[in-house]
Design goal:
Elements lengths: L6 E9 L3 H19 L2 E6 L4 H7 L5 H8 L3 E6 L14 H11 L4 E7 L12 H4 L4 E7 L9 E6 L2 E6 L5 H16 L4 E6 L5 H14 L6 E6 H10 L6 E4 L1 H15 L6 E5 L5 E5 L16 H13 L4 H16 L2 E2 L9 E2 L2 H10 L3
Parallel strand pairs: 1-2, 1-3, 3-12, 5-10, 8-9, 8-10, 13-14
Antiparallel strand pairs: 4-5, 4-11, 6-7, 11-12
Helix pairs in contact: 1-10, 1-12, 6-7, 8-9, 10-11, 11-12
This protein binds 3-isopropylmalic acid (IPM) and magnesium ion (MG).
The site of 3-isopropylmalic acid has 4 residues, from helix 4.
């Protein structure tokens, strides 16, 4: 049975809000995979975000950084919550996320937005707009642009003024474009690159570099779209998108929109990848403090993030498939967490969802 002799070291960040409970459900599924397929996963829990602030005074303790760097992959559930909202920007839980992305070199953020056929009714869009399914992969640049550009505050004759600079180098655009085109090769061979090149100099550079990279991928169809139009097209005709390539800030906004039109944000995983195989995997949803600790959060996004980790970082596609199949079986058998439940379905909590999906691993 066991053909995986390798040991996989995973840093685990349960974080805040519903983070710890969805992580527990996810790790339960991972344990099941280890038993079934004979893989050796070593998980090490570390602190980041609000939990780390409470325990150590810092949102990202050095120990966490060291353990993440020494691991093969990082699993993160969610960070943040109202408790820490009044802290200065640099000390907030979200800062831990930004620092981790930068320190671990996670420049490529993959956010699949797909409609599960069993949950098609949950989409806020009309049935005819999403009929036949929806499968978009947002590829967002994650360590550059306005998030990490020069920022500051200065006195002016009109009072204080603050600025954040959007800046991209050719190298940064080139590598994320390559990621997008390579992924498109395994999908529907279509990349739409989003920019605002009618206004922004940084977008003009973005577009020029993306076009140059496209020369190396002659079988991929490339289109460009201004970000305002892209926001509109996502609700007007989302099926035209296959791979959606974006900068950091545009991707932040459009990936929320893309996930919402699927109607099941509690189901969507994501990956943040560095060069090589290293990656950090997390659900698209946040820490949802309003429902924390009540065993009602949907752990499927966390569980599918674990499947992504197995596939992208460890190359364990059979194991990843088995998790995805188990999630399908869970849905097919009519189980639903409260966020996706409707009449006639069997309502289950966070923990039970993890147990059921683990049971369906074949
Ligand atoms: C996301 C989040 C983060 C971001 C926040 C929490 C810093 O919105 O992952 O999309 O803006 O990147
Ligand atoms: Mg966001």
């Amino acid at each position: 049975m066991s053909d995986n002799n390798k040991k996989y070291n995973i840093a685990v960040i349960p974080g805040d809000g519903i983070g710890p409970e969805v992580m527990d459900a996810g790790l339960h599924v991972l344990t099941r995979i280890a038993e079934k397929f004979g893989c050796d996963f070593k998980t090490t829990k570390v602190l980041a975000g609000g939990a780390a602030i409470d325990a150590t005074g810092k949102c990202l303790p050095q120990e966490t950084v060291d353990i993440c760097k020494a691991s093969d992959a990082v699993l993160l559930a969610a960070v943040g919550g109202p408790k820490w909202n009044d802290l200065p920007g640099d000390e907030r839980p979200e800062k831990a996320l930004l620092e981790l992305r930068k320190l671990l070199g996670l420049y490529a953020n993959l956010r699949p937005a797909m409609v599960f056929p069993q949950l098609a009714d949950a989409s806020p869009l009309k049935a005819e707009i999403i009929s036949g399914g929806l499968d978009i992969l947002v590829v967002r640049e994650l360590t550059g642009g306005i998030y990490f550009g020069k920022k500051g505050t200065e006195k002016t004759e009109f009072g204080l003024a603050a600025y954040d600079v959007e800046q991209y180098s050719e190298m940064e655009v080139e590598r994320i474009a390559k990621t997008a085109f390579s992924l498109a090769e395994k999908r529907n061979k279509n990349v739409i690159s989003v920019d605002k090149s009618n206004v922004l100099e940084s977008s003009r550079l973005w577009r020029r570099v993306v076009e140059a990279v496209a020369q190396d991928y002659p079988d991929i169809a490339l289109d460009h779209m201004y970000v305002d139009n892209a926001a509109m097209q996502l609700v007007r005709n989302p099926k035209q998108f296959d791979v959606l390539l974006t900068s950091n800030i545009f991707g932040d906004i459009l990936s929320d929109e893309a996930s919402q039109i699927t109607g099941s944000i509690g189901m969507l995983p994501s990956a943040s990848l560095a060069d090589g195989n290293f990656g950090m995997y997390e659900p698209v949803h946040g820490s949802a403090p309003d429902i924390a600790g009540r065993d009602i959060a949907n752990p499927v996004a966390m569980i599918l993030s674990i499947a992504m980790m197995l596939r992208y970082t460890f190359g364990l596609s059979r194991e990843a498939d088995s998790i995805e199949n188990a999630v399908n079986e869970f849905l097919d058998k009519g189980y639903r967490t409260p966020d996706i439940a409707s009449d006639g379905y069997t309502k289950v909590g966070t923990k039970e969802t993890g147990l059921l999906i683990a049971e369906f691993i074949k």
